């Protein structure tokens, strides 16, 4: 079989980690160890690791507290045969996050799932982050790849300035650059653009995430960005590129 130059397993896996908002979570039953699977909402941490907001009243949370080993499946949900779409199986350990790391996870999760504002502060809910041990990608016939964590997680070395500025960046984009984000979604991500505005839900060294309620797209940067001034320059170039499409 000839290699497909269009297929980049690392890019596809990173995109699924960032774009998918729901997934199938597999845990081990606290009593007996039998497999248990449930549907969960998912967001991504700044490095791409999955974030969960789950209740201690749920079976999967009780299972995680007894044994943190989990598997999470995220898929394209493509039209037609679902087995023809790409999917990843993330293996790792789900750990509850407290202390200084909690505000960042909370903000990123609520940016992806604003409806969770209504129950995020209920005492039985907590934020859990999946520490990835490995990812298994299935993207069609002959496209099955196992990926180590360092190939799918974003390197945050020397990017503290960008991470610290992320809340302000998101707020600025959503207040001042709605037209640009609609342009990014339509021309760079190929999304169908209607009357609804696209909003920025996340920013990291590798790209930005945009959502319009019905869909999520990932705009990947042409190079790694680690500070706000460099981000501004890259976004300007992407806007110029998007405006040039179709000319």
How is this structure best described in words?
By secondary structure, the chain is α+β, with helices and mostly antiparallel strands. It has two domains: 144 residues, Roll (Pnp Oxidase, Chain A), CATH 2.30.110.10; 85 residues, Split barrel-like (Alpha-Beta Barrel), CATH 3.20.180.10. It is 32% helix and 30% strand. It contains seven helices and eleven strands. The strands form two sheets. Strands 1, 2, 3, 4, 5, 6, 7 and 8 form an eight-stranded antiparallel beta sheet that branches. Strand 1 and strand 2 form a beta hairpin. Helix 6 packs across helix 7. The radius of gyration is 18 Å and the shape is globular. 32% of the residues are buried. The mean pLDDT is 92.
Short description:
With 247 residues, the chain is an alpha+beta fold.
The run of helices and strands is HEEEEHEEHEEHHHEEEH
CATH topology of the largest domain: Pnp Oxidase, Chain A
How many whole angstroms does the radius of gyration measure? 18 Å
Low-confidence regions: none
- Give the count of structural domains: 2
Mean pLDDT: 92
Q: For the record, what CATH class of the largest domain applies?
A: Mainly Beta
What structural class is derived from the secondary structure elements? alpha+beta
Helix content: 25-40%
Annotated CATH architecture of the largest domain:
Roll
Distance between the termini: 37 Å
Task: Describe the main β-sheet briefly.
Answer: 8 strands, antiparallel
Molecular shape: globular
Q: Based on DSSP secondary structure assignment, what is the total number of beta strands?
A: 11
The helix count comes to 7
What percentage of amino acids are in beta strands? 25-35%
CATH superfamily label of the largest domain: Electron Transport, Fmn-binding Protein, Chain A
């Amino acid at each position: 079989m000839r290699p497909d130059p269009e297929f980049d397993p690392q890019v596809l896996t990173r995109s699924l980690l960032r774009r998918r908002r729901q997934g199938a979570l597999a845990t081990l039953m606290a009593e007996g160890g039998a497999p248990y699977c449930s549907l969960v909402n998912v967001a991504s941490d700044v490095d791409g690791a999955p974030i969960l907001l789950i209740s201690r009243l749920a079976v999967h949370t009780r299972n995680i507290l007894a044994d943190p080993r989990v598997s999470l499946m995220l898929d394209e949900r493509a039209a037609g045969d679902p087995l023809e779409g790409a999917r990843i199986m993330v293996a790792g350990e789900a750990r509850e996050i407290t202390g200084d790391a909690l505000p960042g996870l909370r903000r990123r999760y609520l940016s992806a799932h604003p409806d969770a504002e209504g129950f995020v502060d209920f005492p039985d809910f907590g934020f859990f982050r999946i520490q990835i041990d490995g990812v298994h990608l299935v993207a069609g016939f002959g496209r099955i790849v196992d990926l180590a964590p360092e190939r799918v997680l974003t390197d945050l070395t020397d990017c503290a300035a960008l991470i610290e500025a992320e809340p302000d960046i998101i707020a600025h984009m959503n207040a001042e650059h709605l037209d640009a984000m609609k342009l990014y979604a339509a021309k760079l991500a190929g999304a169908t653009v209607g009357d609804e505005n696209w909003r920025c839900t996340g920013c990291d060294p590798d790209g930005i995430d945009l959502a319009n309620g019905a869909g999520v797209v990932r705009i990947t940067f042409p190079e790694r960005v680690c500070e706000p001034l460099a981000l501004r320059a890259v976004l300007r170039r992407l806007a110029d590129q998007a405006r040039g499409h179709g000319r």
